[in-house]
Amino acid sequence: MVSLEYLFIWVALFASLSSPFKRIDFQPGPFGEDAYTENAGIYNLTEFMVLQPTSYYGVNSYWTIYFITASNSHDYFLVGHCNAGFFSGAAPSLLVRASMLDITDGVYSSLTVLPDNATISNDTYNFYAPPLHCYSNSADLFSSITVVSEIPGATFNITSLSDGPKFFDAGSGTFMWGNQTNEWAIPNGYVTGTITYNDTVYDIISSQSLSWFDRQWGPADGHGGWQLFIFYLSNDLKVCVWHGFEVDGFTLNMATILYPDGHHEVEIVDPDIHPSVPFLGPYSGVQYYGAFEVLIPGKNAYLHITLPVLAGEITNPKLPTASYTLFEGYMTVEGCWEGEKVTGFGDSEQHQPYDQYPQGP
Ligand SMILES: *[C@@H]1O[C@H](CO)[C@@H](O)[C@H](O)[C@H]1NC(C)=O
Ligand SMILES: *[C@@H]1O[C@H](CO)[C@@H](O)[C@H](O)[C@H]1NC(C)=O
Ligand SMILES: *[C@@H]1O[C@H](CO)[C@@H](O)[C@H](O)[C@H]1NC(C)=O
Ligand SMILES: *[C@@H]1O[C@H](CO)[C@@H](O)[C@H](O)[C@H]1NC(C)=O
Ligand SMILES: *[C@@H]1O[C@H](CO)[C@@H](O)[C@H](O)[C@H]1NC(C)=O
Ligand SMILES: *[C@@H]1O[C@H](CO)[C@@H](O)[C@H](O)[C@H]1NC(C)=O
After folding, report:
1. Ligand 2 in contact with 5 (CB < 6 A)?
2. CATH (domain of 334)
3. Does 47 contact ligand 2 (Cβ within 6 A)?
4. SUPFAM superfamilies from the entry (predicted)?
5. Looking at ligand 4, which residue's alpha carbon is closest to its atom 9?
6. How confident is the model over 58-68, as pLDDT tens digits?
7. CA 255 to each of CA 40, 127, 213, 328: distance values in angstroms, whole numbers, following the listed order
8. Residue 116 Cβ contacting ligand 1 at under 6 Å
9. Could you give the CA distance from residue 223 to residue 357 in angstroms, rounded to a whole number?
10. Can you give the three-state secondary structure of 247-298, one letter per residue?
11. Which tens digit of pLDDT belongs to each residue from 184-194?
12. Domain assignment present for 361
């Protein structure tokens, strides 16, 4: 007869295996704390959590993706995004968006909103722009970050606590994307809070969930179109692959790799990412892809990327212009990395060249 004790162990094991989202514990380097990655980038994180002048910075973005296992045993992929500043000389403007995919049911909802009633702090991180509110409760403005979304079908209230090394794209946090852009992330957020699915509020199971907070600012974006893949691999690496089409002579084919001890490596990516499984955005009509093959020669890496659900367009349905529209799809990855088999999960961000979208008024 199986003792109760064994039964509990089996149940606990099954529960931990049933979530695809594996948290990776921080492995402090030889000198202990996270001092390396809090100071590795070329700017002060606290200073740049505050909104930068929107007349110069067309991109002023606070974006979080969430990989959640909830108390209903379903898995979710969520996006929350507060952004200020537009392009092409238009008046500075605010935009918020959120999405929720129930991976278990394949049910998806998303919306981009231009908030009318916003109050944005200029000296702290408090972007109150109903139906979204993005803010920090910690003195350094990044150790605790909360996003509350009241967007129907993508309703949540999630706090991410910084855990483990920060992630600096290109190693320094600065690279060319249309113009000089700055981007850093907290990729191992410890998340608590709730999500609302099918009119029921569910708790997040923190041990089987995580978030990737991304702060980006710069005077322009890659309006020639881009693909961005952000993913967690089973060999404990966190990877961001940028593939940007040419803008003013600059292209982007770069992988930034974060190791568990906090060190970064930057690799060139084969510019042919083999997009396949085309499908059309339900609102904009532009073409997105459901599969890619990404090659990183310096790591002998071959990565087959798949979107299990062909959904991810977030826009204003009445005005699906290039500025209002972004595609964020849940992806899985399998392949090999330096001779070892790897699997993983992440986000596939897609944007076609700006001139392919419906034009605004
Ligand atoms: C970073 O910026 C914050 C806010 O401006 C400031 O209080 C802090 O002293 C700065 N840190 C360093 C190391 O300069
Ligand atoms: C802004 O506030 C007005 C008046 O309370 C309300 O009618 C409107 O729906 C609000 N807009 C948003 C985007 O929340
Ligand atoms: C922040 O600065 C902008 C531009 O100077 C100004 O229009 C806005 O009112 C300020 N917001 C707050 C909350 O002070
Ligand atoms: C979101 O959750 C936090 C932490 O539990 C709580 O303090 C806050 O009041 C909640 N916000 C809303 C709008 O419910
Ligand atoms: C970057 O943007 C600034 C401000 O708009 C502009 O002066 C500069 O020429 C741009 N540089 C490039 C390389 O596009
Ligand atoms: C949503 O809830 C309703 C009422 O409880 C139920 O009938 C329906 O099957 C649920 N839908 C999904 C997708 O779970």
Report:
1. no
2. 2.40.370.10
3. no
4. AttH-like (SSF159245)
5. 157
6. 889 999 999 99
7. 17, 30, 18, 18
8. no
9. 11
10. ECCEEEEEEEEECCCCCEEEEECCCCCCCEEEEECCCCCCEEEEEEEEEEHH
11. 999 999 999 99
12. no
